[in-house]
Amino acid sequence: MDIVLVPGLWLDASSWDLVVPRLTAAGHTVRPLTLPGPESAETDRSDVHVADQVAAVVAAIDESDGPVLLVGHSMGCAVAGAALDARIDKVAKVVYVGGWPAEPGMIPAKNFSTDGADMPPVPWEEFDEADVRDLDRATFESFLRPSPASLTTEPFELGDERRYAVPALFVCPEYTAADLKGWIAEGAEPTAAIPKHTEASFVDLPTGHWPQLSKPAELAEIILRSVG
């Protein structure tokens, strides 16, 4: 199967480097993506938009020969969900790691700080201890570069409600599946899309917010089990 890996804020394709070999060894074609914007610290992000990031994932899906397993991380979950909306018939399943899809009109990154056209990475000191569990600071920071500031102001546009019928797995790293189900029950706005899924499952992966860096073997195993 083709597996498309969508990184979250401040990360590029290299953030999946410890996961990819385990997936390719199992015989899958793996496409780790660098979305428009975080290519380098020097990238001009002044004309990079949410639609550009979604289009990059759609392009990767279109390059695939068969059904796609789509994997998103953090903010990349919203981007992956929008790409699913655009290519319902090509995606067999979605794995959302440390995040969830957006509903139409949502701006998941609206509360992040910006600096001109950039959304700088949050400083290590400002993360909760649970977020950075099992991570080495220097290694983690070596992956980071700004994301486009447009992500803090531009809503996601979606239009095909068949996306709710695509099987979805929600991987819970710095929080538990019980926590996530509690937020859903409380009607927390960021999780509004999840109860609309007709086939949703949940799995705990106890670590920090970036399991592709802190627990890559365990995350790869979860992804492989999703292939079935």
UniProtKB/TrEMBL annotation:
Domain of life (superkingdom): Bacteria
SUPFAM superfamilies in the cross-refs: alpha/beta-Hydrolases (SSF53474)
Domain AB hydrolase-1: 3-221
Transmembrane segments: none
InterPro entries membership: AB_hydrolase_1, AB_hydrolase_fold, Sec-Metab_Biosynth_Hydrolase
PANTHER family the record matches: AB HYDROLASE-1 DOMAIN-CONTAINING PROTEIN-RELATED, ESTERASE_LIPASE_THIOESTERASE DOMAIN-CONTAINING PROTEIN
Entry protein name: Esterase
Record organism: Nocardioides luteus
